[in-house]
Design brief:
The chain is mainly beta. The chain has one domain. The chain is 14% helix and 41% strand. The protein has three helices and eight strands. The protein has helices at 3-10, 14-19, 21-34; strands at residues 43-54, 74-80, 104-110, 118-122, 125-140, 146-159, 170-179, 185-194. Strands 1-2-3-4-5-6-7-8 form an eight-stranded antiparallel beta barrel. The longest helix has 14 residues, at 21-34.
């Protein structure tokens, strides 16, 4: 899909794409990953979506590099966008538009505003990642909040289960994070996860 066609389809303002041409490139990479035959087994796409809430109780995910009992961590939902490694239902993913909740597959944990590692709790295992860079801009939302728009780069430093082979891999987050006037955060983020 050409960048201009994706921009029309997604309804993204041209000013944002002029400021962030890499954002448009990242989004078209995600689009190509969903096309038939374009999905290598070492790449998959997830959606983080919804409000961040405090972690009610820290799950034991078998990861050593992150402490989810740290009160800094919050969590939001992970949704399936493409097939996952080792997925027995490969090719039978739910339609996100028709039944979003049935597409929910896990939880994402982050200590917002810090450099602490993040965690993906997914079917078949979990992953720890560390931020290595970002290219974002902050835009007032006109209601006392801020939109944080752009990309984040993360390295995969730990994996369990089917995600062990992803250690040393990469995650490009294409993010629209909304900090509301009351200080809460709402996430809308595509994660393009690749093995080394």
């Amino acid at each position: 899909m050409k960048r201009r066609d994706f921009v029309k389809k997604a309804g993204i303002g041209s000013a944002a794409l002029v400021s962030f041409p890499h954002l448009a490139d990242a989004l078209t990479i995600a689009e190509r990953a969903l096309q038939p035959g374009g999905q290598p087994t070492d790449t998959f796409l997830l959606l983080l979506d919804g409000p961040y809430v405090p972690v009610p109780h820290a799950p034991n995910l078998g990861l050593l590099q992150v402490d989810l009992s740290n009160s800094s961590y919050s969590t939001t939902k992970i949704y399936r966008v493409s097939d996952l490694p080792g997925d027995p239902n490969r090719g039978n993913r739910p339609d996100l538009d028709a039944e979003k909740e049935s597409a929910r597959i896990g939880n994402f944990y982050a200590a917002l505003g810090s450099n602490l590692p993040v965690t993906y709790d997914l079917p078949g295992g979990a992953m720890t990642m560390v931020f290595t860079g970002s290219n974002v801009m902050r835009i007032p939302d006109g209601q006392g909040g801020t939109l944080i728009v752009g990309t984040f780069e993360l390295d995969i430093t730990e994996g369990t289960g089917v995600y062990q082979s992803f250690v040393g891999g990469h995650n490009k987050m294409v993010d629209l994070l909304h900090r509301l006037a009351d200080g809460t955060f709402v996430e809308h983020c595509f994660c393009i996860i690749t093995a080394p």
